[in-house]
Each structure stands twice: as C-alpha cells, then as structure tokens.
Write a structure and sequence with these properties.
Elements lengths: L25 H8 L4 H27 L29 H13 L8 H18 L6 H21 L14 H27 L4 H15 L3 H11 L12 H26 L3 H9 L4 H16 L1 H14 L11 H7 L11 H31 L6
Helix pairs in contact: 3-6, 4-5, 6-7, 6-9, 6-12, 6-13, 7-9, 8-9, 9-11, 9-12, 12-14, 13-14
Length: 384
C-alpha cells in the first residue's frame, strides 16, 4: 500500500469558521428582527414614526424646557424664554424634586438624625452585594448578617433607644419605608412560602388543610383588605392596653400576603420536578428534610426563578398601598407634597409621579436583570 492509499486520521479539531458576512453585524440583526416580513416592515415604519414624533416632545418637556432650580412654584410656570404661558404650563418642574428630595427619601425623619438611616442603607448595600455575587465566599455568614443581625441593628438605629433619640415610626416615610417594607416582605415570604408549599403537599391531612386554607383565603382577598385587617382588626385580639406599631402591622400584612403567593410559586416548582428525583433520593436512604433540602428544593427554586422575582417585584410596587392606613412610602410622600401651596402648579404632580415611577422602575428593572443573570448562571443546558 502506497503512502497515498493510507487512511488519514485527523488529530486536531477544525477551527470553527465565522458566519457569512451577511449573517452577522447590525445590518443582519435589523434584517432578521425588523424587516423579515412585510408585516414587520410596516410595524417597524410605524414604530419609527411614533418614536420620531414622541421623543423630541419628551426630550423638550423633560430636559430642554424643564425648570431645574427655583424656590417656589412661580418658576415652574415660566418657560426658558422667560415668558409665562397662558395656561401656566411649562417643562418638567425638577426644582420641586430638588427641593423635596430629602423628604422623598427619608419622609419626616428629623434632619439631625438622618445619618442613622444613611448608615443602615450603607450596611444594607455592603451585605447585599456579596450575597448577590455567586462567587463571593462565606454565604452562610453573609446570610446571617443580612437577615438576622442587620434587622436588629437597623431597628436600633432607625427607631432609637440605648442613647439614641427615639424616632417614632409615624415620622418614617419616603423611599426608606418602601425599602423596609419590601425587604422584610421579601425576606419573610420566601421561607414562609416554602413551608406553606411543602405543607400543602404534605400527607398529613391537618397540616395540608391548614396550609390550603391559609393560602386560598389570603389569595382570595386584595392586599388592601389584608392591610386593613392588620391595621384595624389585629389590635382587637390583643390584651387591653397593648398596642402594635402601625409599621409593624404593615410589615405583618405585606409578609402574610406575599407568603401566600410565594407558596403557589414554589408549589409549581415542586410539581415540575420529575418523579424520578424523589425516587432517587429515597433510594439513597435520605430522610424527608434531607431530600427536600439537598435535592428537591434547589431544583424547584431554579425552575421558578422568574416567578419568584416577579413576586418580589409585585411586592416592591404594592408597598405603595400602605398609604391607605396612614403611612407614606415613596409614592405617598410624593403625592402628599402636591398639596404644598408653594409648589402648586400644573406640572408639579406629573413631575413628581414621573420621579416616583422612575425610582420604582429602577429597582424593578434591577431585580429583573439580576433574575436573568441567575438563570444563565444556574443553567445546566436543559431546554425547558
């Protein structure tokens, strides 16, 4: 056999060639996503026309013609040319946001004591960031500090005592209350939702009935009703002379409501686990809690990460409902300042609502992006 007749065996893998020039780059993306069909072309043209019409008006109102500084409402009725418009309408009144910014963040918290919520916010960020980074070490210690130690320190700093001036919770408000309510609601709802979901799937009839009753009753009423019950009816069950702080009532109401929804999210994840996973865990001789903690629950939570984050986002936004029981979160404190005669103008309300909406969107968008990051990080290659 000659050398030319011998079979050839490749010893290295061919280097992958790049896609054709027409299938990559911005032009290919536009052709594939915006101009693929005649319907896509028409919709793209209409969308571009709408953007071309709306964006200049929005930019003009939000930035160019906006009022950025001023001591009172008279500046918010003045255009950049210096003339008063007939209807008193001008650009956005960012001077109102600037003047009330501290109140939007801290509510009516005393000026001399606002260093305390600032410290709590810094501690929260320092503990939350490593908790969200998958590669950060000492997750157990981090979780204990974030969910057990920080709430105690935060309560001591925010409320006072032990040498600090006492600041009653009716003076709390703004973004601070929004973050407190949402953090406690999220931190409490996840473990409670897991326990409720496990209880609903329990083989013990009493536990299953109690969990089903709790979930269905709470999910069957709006959050406003739960907050009213926590604010009005809860004190009726306490001994004479006892009183529960209004903020604590709101925390209980939000946590209970969110836990019921979280339980159904977790239950959906548990039902999506193949039966073979349960049988495999049983074959290893694992007990119920070992099987749940080590095998079942990690898979269930990974499957429902989008739904969990969706519930967290809903909780963050629903905190604005505490206004009906006399508390002022970010949206509530913004709306409360609309009644300030010094800033009463045609553009003040919409500017305040845009500011509050942007803050809510910023936090919700951050949670959504982190959810996508965790899905990619935990992806094992299975298509669902």
């Amino acid at each position: 056999m000659s050398v030319a007749d011998k079979p050839f065996v490749r010893t290295s893998i061919l280097v992958a060639e790049p896609p054709p020039p027409g299938e990559r780059g911005a032009v290919a993306w536009i052709r594939r996503n915006l101009l693929a069909t005649p319907k896509d072309v028409i919709l793209t043209i209409l969308a571009l026309a709408l953007i071309a019409w709306a964006v200049p008006h929005l930019v003009n109102w939000l930035f160019i013609q906006a009022v950025w500084s001023g001591p009172d409402r008279t500046f918010c009725a003045t255009t950049i040319q210096g003339g008063i418009q007939p209807d008193g309408w001008s650009g956005a009144c960012w001077a109102f946001i600037s003047a009330k910014y501290d109140q939007f963040i801290f509510g009516r918290y005393p000026l001399d004591e606002r260093w305390r919520p600032a410290i709590v916010g810094i501690l929260f960020i320092l503990l939350l960031v490593p908790m969200l980074i998958p590669s950060a070490p000492r997750k157990g210690l981090n979780a204990i500090l974030l969910f057990a130690v920080l709430p105690v320190i935060a309560f001591w700093l925010l409320h006072g005592g032990f040498g600090l001036e006492v600041v009653d919770t009716p003076l709390w408000g703004g973004l601070m209350v929004t973050l407190v309510l949402s953090f406690v609601g999220i931190a409490v709802s996840l473990p409670c939702g897991i326990l409720l979901a496990l209880g609903r799937r329990s083989k013990m009839p009493v536990i299953r009935m109690l969990c089903v009753t709790f979930i269905e009753v709470i999910r069957g009423v709006p959050l406003i009703t739960v907050l009213f019950m926590a604010s009005v009816m809860l004190p009726l069950f306490l001994p004479t002379g006892w009183n529960v702080d209004k903020l604590l009532r709101a925390l209980i109401g939000v946590s209970i409501f969110t836990s019921a929804y979280m339980a159904e999210v977790i239950r959906g994840g548990l039902q999506a686990i193949p039966k073979g996973q349960f049988e495999g865990a049983d074959s290893l001789g694992l007990g119920y809690w070992q099987k749940t903690r080590l095998i079942i629950m990690p898979q269930a939570i990974k499957l429902v990460i989008p739904s969990i984050v969706n519930t967290f986002i809903g909780t963050f936004k629903d905190t604005s409902l505490v206004t009906i029981i006399g508390m002022f979160d970010l949206l509530g404190i913004v709306k409360l300042n609309f009644s300030d005669a010094n800033w009463a103008s045609a553009v003040t309300p919409i500017t305040g609502l845009i500011f509050a909406g942007f803050i809510f969107w910023l936090f919700c968008f951050g949670m959504s992006r982190y959810s996508g990051f965790m899905e990619r990080h935990l992806d094992t290659g299975h298509k669902r």
